[in-house]
Amino acid sequence: xxxxxxxxxxxxxxxxxxxxxxxxxxxxxxxxxxxxxxxxxxxxxxxxxxxxxxxxxxxxxxxxxxxxxxxxxxxxxxxxxxxxxxxxxxxxxxxxxxxxxxxxxxxxxxxxxxxxxxxxxxxxxxxxxxxxxxxxxxxxxxxxxxxxxxxxxxxxxxxxxxxxxxxxxxxxxxxxxxxxxxxxxxxxxxxxxxxxxxxxxxxxxxxxxxxxxxxxxxxxxxxxxxxxxxxxxxxxxxxxxxxxxxxxxxxxxxxxxxxxxxxxxxxxxxxxxxxxxxxxxxxxxxxxxxxxxxxxxxxxxxxxxxxxxxxxxxxxxxxxxxxxxxxxxxxxxxx
Amino acid sequence: xxxxxxxxxxxxxxxxxxxxxxxxxxxxxxxxxxxxxxxxxxxxxxxxxxxxxxxxxxxxxxxxxxxxxxxxxxxxxxxxxxxxxxxxxxxxxxxxxxxxxxxxxxxxxx
Lengths: 335, 110
Hints:
The complex is a heterodimer of chains A (335) and B (110). Chain A folds into two domains: 3-104 and 264-334, FAD/NAD(P)-binding domain (3-Layer(bba) Sandwich), CATH 3.50.50; 109-262, 3-Layer(bba) Sandwich (FAD/NAD(P)-binding domain), CATH 3.50.50. Helix content of chain A is 27%, strand content 25%. By secondary structure, chain A is α/β, with parallel strands linked by helices. Chain A is built from seven helices and 20 strands. The longest helix of chain A is centred in the C-terminal third of the chain and has 21 residues, at 314-334. In chain A, helix 1 packs parallel to helix 2 (54-66) and helix 4 runs parallel beside helix 5. The model of chain A has no long low-confidence stretch (mean pLDDT 97). By secondary structure, chain B is an all-alpha fold. In chain B, 46% of the residues lie in helices and 2% in strands. Chain B is built from seven helices and one strand; from the N terminus they run E-H-H-H-H-H-H-H. Classes of the chains: A alpha/beta (335), B mainly alpha (110). Chain A binds chain B through residues 148, 198, 210, 213-215, 217-220, 222, 242, 244-252, and chain B through 13-18, 29, 33-34, 36-40, 59-60, 63-64, 66-67, 69, 92.
């Protein structure tokens, strides 16, 4: 059987491996963590349908186990080319092709120190909020329910000051989803989403935005928060322009939530150098083209699936992973 | 005799949500929640007969009212001729004329 390396055991890696197996190819998954699942594991409910993340992860994980796909956990890949993978341990595995499914890195909100993440109390990231929903425990300054919550879009996205010019695409709808979840949890709270543009690109997303406005009374303010400062009582004061009225606006909030973006992995540069791969300006891997070869790299025998090439939603990632496996099979046949 | 040196004190332009009394704003949104669905596209203002002849800007006035900035809103809304063109065009289906009447009713006794 032809052996193909799948680097990364998130949803892209699992789906790629499963499809490869269907096509009669033997995949081997290399996962850095001790568990399969990647970033989706940190998520509670998924937009736009509030589906539990387990509904995506469990079927994939179970199928990987049932199909007895070889999985190397806690295994870091140091280098690869189209015919081999070298692990951090020095072990070299010969393969017929490689699919890179290494995903993305969450933007470190501390870099935007004007928002005070990690400095002031009551400043959270969207990832922290998911964790709170998973644990069912909400950290709050006096153990009281928050009365006012601000959610800031585009933290570490569309921001040249932190070298992240690209749009992370999924945060807008995540912000709308989390606003609704928080409103359900804290019905008395006023929730304000501060946005630069609202980008609702998927089916049901625009409808969710409308629901958030009409049924949940979420306030949307077009304007980017410029700075946050702590108040004596532990709350956070934020400043923005309400650009639709052309006036500066300020308020104090009990929770200040930063919708952190998706950035490229720092390892991409190393992989690009060692395997002669092209990088996009954003630091994500650059596919051969954005149309018929969007899962192929510029090197024969190296393929991409998922957010290693750009921010994407879960559905898009799963589609792309199947496509990548199909292209691998085509490549192996035509070789 | 007071001398005018040309100095004056500007009032802060900031919308301070902490200080503004949002009671009326909350009432207005409660009675016509569809107003919250505004996406600020400006179609209402672009089509507005009054807005083409005066500085009247419905989008701006209702946004300010929602933020608790009531001053001058009633007078501004008096410029509206209730022709209803904005209501025909609003992509979010907001009953804009109803909003105008509601805000005037709420702020008239303010």
